[in-house]
Design goal:
Oligomer: single chain
Number of helices: 6
Largest sheet: 3 strands, antiparallel
Low-confidence stretches: none
Structural class: mainly alpha
Strand order of the largest sheet: 1-2-3
Number of strands: 5
């Protein structure tokens, strides 16, 4: 029978308890140090300013917001997001901008559709989506044009000029309806 000759410290006992309870990251002693009086907690998507910089949290990671963020989103990655291969072919950058994958992934996708007999349906749906987008843009443009006022105009010198005439709203609405009807007729 062996007798334990050393007494364990409370922190050692607490450390063993934490390990047994699978809490290995928890503290077993009180820490001493400086903490900010105002501790800010931020969640995903928050934007805040600290030390003269803007920050946000994206996918759980704190990131600095810079002027180049728009460029970062339009840049071509080194690896295809679908197949994880290096995007080194001449056309990969063009296919990534259009479809979000490399030339090989796009070719495999289209080949799969052709084998399954869904290619013609896919082409029709794509064509119709493009026409729907054109219709939306045309309606927004026409509504903006119809609603703008041209009763007066201010010159660079600051003079106000009164103009006669303007847009015939009834005629513009008829043109809008005819344009939408024509674009809908282009659908397959």
């Amino acid at each position: 029978m062996s007798v334990l000759k050393k007494q364990f410290a409370e922190k050692d006992v607490q450390r063993l308890r934490n390990l047994i309870q699978n809490k290995s990251g928890e503290r077993n002693t009180a820490g001493v140090g400086y903490t900010k009086s105002e501790s800010e907690t931020h969640i995903e998507g928050d934007i805040w300013e600290s030390d003269g910089r803007k920050w946000t949290i994206i996918d759980g990671v704190r990131e600095n917001i810079t002027k180049l963020d728009k460029f970062k989103s339009s840049a071509i990655p080194l690896f295809c997001p679908s197949c994880k291969h290096i995007m080194d072919k001449q056309l990969d950058s063009h296919y990534f901008k259009s479809y979000g994958s490399c030339l090989n992934c796009r070719t495999e996708f289209e080949t799969k559709l052709k084998i399954e007999g869904k290619w013609e349906t896919y082409l029709k749906e794509t064509h119709n989506r493009e026409i729907d987008k054109h219709i939306e843009e045309y309606i927004a443009y026409m509504e903006d044009t119809i609603s703008e006022s041209n009763e007066s105009y201010i010159t660079e010198a600051g003079d106000i000029q009164k103009w006669n005439g303007g847009i015939d709203k009834k005629r513009a609405n008829n043109a809008l309806e005819e344009g939408v009807k024509y674009l809908n007729s282009l659908k397959k």
